[in-house]
Write a structure and sequence with these properties.
alpha/beta; 6-stranded mixed β-sheet; 3-stranded mixed β-sheet; 8 helices
């Protein structure tokens, strides 16, 4: 009997990240939405439990056991969690609840109530991210947290879109120009979008130290990790 393939679970926030990453890797996705930014979260929320809930749901749907899952990767959008509160401003003429001014490192909100509510959500998300960024295992399965900052379309297009069609169009245009992993890696390096580190936790530490709206990602390290796993499988290593 041949060696059973290890299952790699990739958790993404939504369809945009899945559409983007599917072009470059062919693993199982679990699209769950932004589980770290839900308004129901509170200060006592356990982010590891939230990931474990996703894991349990995935195993139930796919008929996997915990022993089948070797690696869990989670990809999130950083949103505005790094921006300090002095960058927040109210602009009542906005048509959306909030907008990013990337040039001036500002975030505008349509009302003070929306500003206050979003600020609480982002403060809590930052606490959860700080916990998960230092987490190596969940239920004894290898775990890594990856990021797009501020969003995936910010990274690939240097712009944040609010309409879903615009997001999809940006992804399609990017994939047409960078159709394979090699070209994607070249893009990330050319645009200086990744930190010079091979360690995922260190890439988080560097990002969290920025404390501003910044265009960065460590998605390159996801590809590195998956390539290592696939190479081990090919060589029959454990």
């Amino acid at each position: 009997m041949g060696k059973q393939k290890e299952v790699i679970l990739l958790i993404v926030e939504g369809q945009n990240d899945e559409d983007l990453l599917t072009e470059y890797i062919e693993e199982e996705f679990a699209e769950v939405g932004d589980i770290l930014s839900r308004p129901s979260n509170n200060l006592e929320t356990n982010p590891v439990k939230k990931v474990n809930d996703v894991l349990n749901k995935f195993m139930k749907e796919k008929k996997f056991r915990i022993g089948d899952i070797a690696h869990i990767f989670q990809v999130i959008d950083v949103d505005g969690i790094l921006a300090s509160s002095d960058t927040y401003q109210v602009r009542e003429q906005l048509t959306s609840n909030h907008e990013y001014d990337l040039m001036n490192n500002k975030i505008y909100f349509r009302t003070q109530n929306i500003l206050n509510a979003t600020s609480r959500i982002w403060d809590n998300k930052l606490r959860l991210v700080n916990r998960l960024a230092k987490t190596d295992k969940i239920r004894n399965r290898k775990y890594k947290l990856l990021y797009f900052s501020v969003t995936s379309e910010h990274v690939i297009a240097n712009q944040i879109y609010w309409q879903q069609d615009d997001k999809f169009n940006a992804i399609d245009a990017f994939q047409d120009q960078y159709p394979d992993l090699s070209s994607l890696r070249s893009f990330l390096k050319k645009e200086n979008l990744v930190y010079q580190t091979n360690d995922i936790q260190e890439s988080w530490a560097k990002l969290l130290a920025e404390e501003k709206l910044i265009r960065k990602t460590n998605i390159n390290l996801l590809f590195d990790e998956i390539e290592k796993i696939l190479l081990k499988d090919e060589n029959g290593e454990k």
